[in-house]
Design brief:
The complex is a heterodimer of chains A (114) and B (111). Chain A contains no helices and eleven strands. Chain A is mainly β and 114 residues long. In chain A, a hairpin with a 2-residue loop joins strand 5 and strand 6. The model of chain A has no long low-confidence stretch (mean pLDDT 93). In chain B, strand 7 and strand 8 form a beta hairpin. At the A-B interface, strand 5 and strand 10 of A face strand 5 and strand 10 of B.
Chain lengths: 114, 111
């Protein structure tokens, strides 16, 4: 298996633009997580899906952020409109079952909003 | 304030030296994981500890879970440049609960 695949690897966008980050989890995994990593705040959980259903979105910073998982092999994280403070590395991770089992991370998307 | 506090935040040592990284909390965790993250990559799981007092060894790495399951340590013996990276601890308060990550310890091992 190729592991968790994220795209794009890098994204530079202007403030106010819509940004869509994509993730393909490991086949057979039923849990998917979106994390954001910054120097100041470390690794923060944004949202967690189990069997394609959002279970916990309490980490989503505000309404500008939304995430979908239309099927077991694809998820998106959208920011609309984007702001400079959204600049960070966004990671997608998947696991076999539940939040406390081993999480396999993608390589991340480095987002820069100018 | 982070639920899981890691110390030190940064550690720079020479190849061959030993180092210890700490992960502390006032909360009890049902399990605790240690990850290593290299630049440009996502974190990769090193070990999971679930029993208070548990000690696990992975080659030159020794992981310990505190008796009260509130803290953990990672000890590296005879560090090598390949050990350079960001070490993250992550805990789950109960089985099936979400993982909370510590702020990380950045380790630099100089040749």
């Amino acid at each position: 298996d190729a592991g968790v695949i994220q795209s794009p690897r890098h994204e530079v966008t202007e403030m106010g633009q819509e940004v869509t980050l994509r993730c393909k989890p490991i086949s057979g995994h039923n849990s998917l997580f979106w994390y954001r990593q910054t120097m100041m705040r470390g690794l923060e959980l944004l949202i967690y899906f189990n069997n394609n259903v959002p279970i916990d979105d309490s980490g989503m910073p505000e309404d500008r952020f939304s995430a979908k998982m239309p099927n077991a092999s694809f998820s998106t994280l959208k920011i609309q409109p984007s702001e400079p403070r959204d600049s960070a590395v966004y990671f997608c991770a998947s696991s076999l079952a539940g939040m406390d089992t081993e999480a396999f991370f993608g390589q991340g998307t480095r987002l820069t909003v100018v | 304030t982070q639920l899981l506090e890691q110390s030190p935040q940064f550690l720079s040592i020479q190849e061959g030296e030993n180092l210890t990284v700490y992960c502390n909390s006032s909360s009890v965790f049902s399990s605790l994981q240690w990850y290593r993250q290299e630049p440009g990559e996502g974190p990769v799981l090193l070990v999971t500890v679930v029993t208070g007092g548990e000690v696990k060894k992975l080659k030159r790495l020794t992981f310990q879970f505190g008796d009260a399951r509130k803290d953990s340590s990672l000890h590296i013996t005879a560090a090598q440049p390949g050990d350079t990276g960001l070490y993250l601890c992550a805990g789950a308060k109960a089985a099936g609960n979400k993982l909370t990550f510590g702020g990380g310890t950045r380790v630099l091992v100089k040749p």
